[in-house]
């Protein structure tokens, strides 16, 4: 049934949404793991360390590198309003994700025993460190009147 749903919605959904939903059971089994980008690993080591190069351009570049992996910051201007088709695709993606999550019986236990839950926490900690680093660098930029 899950395969049929994926095939039926593949035409109307974005490839990444279908791919994410399709790999959910593999992530639950810890077969497919999310890679932590090097910029987040570096931020995790010392999120509040002063950068060697404190020039405005270097600070802007460091923030941009974090934006590329984290997405826009809280105060970024909103993107163009999504079209009705985009909203429909997002809803289909959410439904696919829920269906894929239901494909693994005893999902919580499987994730715990496979190490997927621990991997998810590891990725979440790296994201938090990256967000802290970005905020620190942005504050440093403001302090220098960049």
Helix content: 55-70%
- Count helical runs: 7
DSSP E strands, number: 0
Distance between the termini: 55 Å
Q: How much of the sequence is in beta strands?
A: under 5%
**What is the chains' assembly state?**
single chain
Shape: flat
Number of domains: 1
What can be said about the biggest beta sheet? none
User: Low-confidence spans: pLDDT under 50, at least 5 residues?
Assistant: 1-15
Mean pLDDT: 75
- Give the structural class: mainly alpha
User: What string, H for helix and E for strand, traces the elements in order?
Assistant: HHHHHHH
Radius of gyration: 19 Å
Description:
The protein is mostly helical and 146 residues long. It has one domain. Helices cover 68% and strands 0% of the residues. The protein contains seven helices and no strands. The chain has helices at residues 2-10, 15-28, 38-45, 56-70, 84-101, 107-114, 116-143. α1 runs antiparallel to α5 and α2 runs parallel beside α5. The longest helix has 28 residues, at 116-143. The protein is flat, with a radius of gyration of 19 Å. The termini are far apart. The relative contact order is 0.21.
Secondary-structure blueprint of this entry?
Blueprint: H1 2-10, H2 15-28, H3 38-45, H4 56-70, H5 84-101, H6 107-114, H7 116-143
Helix pairs in contact: 1-5, 2-5, 3-7, 4-7
Q: How would you describe this structure in keywords?
A:
flat, 0% strand, 7 helices, mainly alpha, single chain, 146 residues, 68% helix
Question: Short description, anyone?
Answer:
It is built from 7 helices and no strands. It has 146 residues and is mainly alpha-helical.
């Amino acid at each position: 049934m899950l395969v049929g749903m994926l095939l039926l919605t593949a035409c109307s959904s974005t490839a990444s949404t279908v791919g994410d939903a399709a790999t959910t059971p593999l992530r639950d089994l810890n077969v497919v793991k999310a890679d932590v980008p090097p910029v987040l690993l570096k931020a995790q080591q010392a999120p509040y360390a002063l950068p060697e190069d404190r020039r405005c351009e270097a600070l802007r570049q460091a923030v941009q590198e974090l934006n590329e992996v984290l997405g826009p910051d809280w105060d970024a201007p909103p993107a163009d309003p999504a079209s009705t088709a985009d909203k429909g695709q997002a809803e289909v993606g959410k439904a696919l994700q829920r269906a894929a999550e239901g494909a693994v019986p005893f999902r919580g236990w499987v994730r715990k025993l496979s190490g997927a839950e621990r991997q998810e926490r590891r990725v979440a900690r790296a994201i938090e460190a990256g967000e802290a680093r970005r905020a620190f660098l942005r504050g440093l930029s403001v302090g220098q009147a960049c």
